[in-house]
Amino acid sequence: MDRALQLDPKNDTAWHVLGRWNRVLANVNVLKRVLAKAMYGDLPVTTNEAAEKCLLKAIELNPNRLMHYIELGRIYAQMGRKDRAREYLQKGLAMPNKEKDDPEMREIGRQTLGNL
Questions:
Q1: Integer Cα distance of 64 and 68 in angstroms
Q2: What angle (nearest 5°) sits at the alpha carbon of residue 21, between those of residues 52 and 116?
Q3: pLDDT digit string, tens, across residues 18-65
Q4: Predicted confidence (pLDDT) at residue 17 exceeds the cutoff of 80
Q5: For residue 12, how many other CB atoms are within 10 A of its CB?
Q6: What is the dihedral of CA 114, 17, 72, 6, to 10 degrees?
């Protein structure tokens, strides 16, 4: 993603993927980190705040993609920021399906909202 963003810093999809990557890595538990280190070497260390910044950038670049809002809502949910999570999840869920993956993202959004 770093290379993609060097080539096109306005690529909202690259910002989205980088945000999702940061969210997942920020929440890897200690046991999985130890196993990964034994097999592959150290995993990069990142934070949910880094993931948040990436998704906010993706929304700034393209505010018409529901996947950005759902993913940002998931990040806020993992951060324990339930009000912000609800806000972004509801924004995403209120948007119409425009892309192939939107129904799947919508379902993820509903599940996340239901778990808050």
A1: 9
A2: 55
A3: 999 899 888 776 777 667 667 777 767 789 999 999 999 999 999 999
A4: yes
A5: 20
A6: 180
Where are the extended beta strands (E) located within the chain? none
Q: How far apart are CA 100 and CA 103, in angstroms?
A: 7
AA identity, residue 72:
L
The length of the chain is 116
Percent share of the chain, pLDDT over 70: 93
Walk me through the domains of the chain, giving residue ranges and CATH numbers.
2-115 (1.25.40.10)
Residue that the structure tokens 């990142």 belong to: 46
For the beta carbon of residue 61, count every other beta carbon within 10 angstroms: 17
